[in-house]
Structure to design on (192 residues):
């Protein structure tokens, strides 16, 4: 029984080996799949072919020739005129600026020096308080906001410096105006 099994296994093994060899030989003979296979040309293509030459007396259709068109002279068209340039408008005569004659209008001018007195002391005190409050707000600004709004913070400091110089020179109205500008700009910085 063992011998029969052994023979059976050998026979199956031989059949499998035969099949595998047949497949391998088939693959080897088929060639590379990437290389294009050249098909042989049929023998009829290689042989010369006799061409039929028509006889000379046969009336073949002719292509009609048309006469060349006559070109006349082109019409004389003048070139387009360049666009007209408008003359610059004459400057309008504007009315001269009106100058106020009263002293109240002169006092409203920025940086105007006043005569002094009790009102000047009160304005100087207001300007100094405004400068101090803006300085306090400026020191409370975070460093990130100060870096982000660098230009505006620099302008606030510039207005405050000018306001303090104006106070030292005795111009309390100008100092108050500059301090107000610094306060308004500081409001904008804090909004952002």
């Amino acid at each position: 029984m063992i011998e029969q099994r052994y023979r059976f296994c050998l026979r199956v093994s031989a059949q499998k080996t035969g099949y595998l060899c047949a497949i391998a030989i088939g693959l080897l003979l088929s060639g590379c799949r990437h290389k294009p296979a050249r098909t042989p040309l049929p023998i009829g293509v290689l042989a010369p072919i006799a061409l039929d030459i028509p006889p000379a007396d046969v009336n073949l259709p002719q292509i009609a020739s048309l006469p060349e068109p006559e070109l006349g002279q082109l019409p004389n068209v003048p070139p387009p005129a360049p666009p007209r340039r408008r003359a610059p408008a004459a400057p309008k005569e504007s009315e001269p600026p009106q100058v106020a004659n009263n002293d109240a209008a002169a006092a409203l001018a920025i940086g105007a020096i006043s005569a002094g007195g009790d009102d000047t002391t009160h304005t100087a005190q207001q300007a100094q308080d405004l400068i101090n409050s803006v300085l306090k707000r400026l020191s409370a600004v975070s460093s990130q906001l100060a870096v982000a709004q660098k230009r505006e913070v620099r302008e606030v400091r510039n207005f405050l410096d000018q306001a303090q110089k104006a106070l030292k020179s005795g111009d309390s109205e100008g100092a108050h105006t500059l301090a107000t500008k610094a306060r308004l700009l500081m409001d904008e910085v804090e909004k952002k």
About this structure: The chain is about 55% helix and 0% strand. The domain at 117-191 is CATH 1.20.1270 (Substrate Binding Domain Of Dnak; Chain:A; Domain 2).
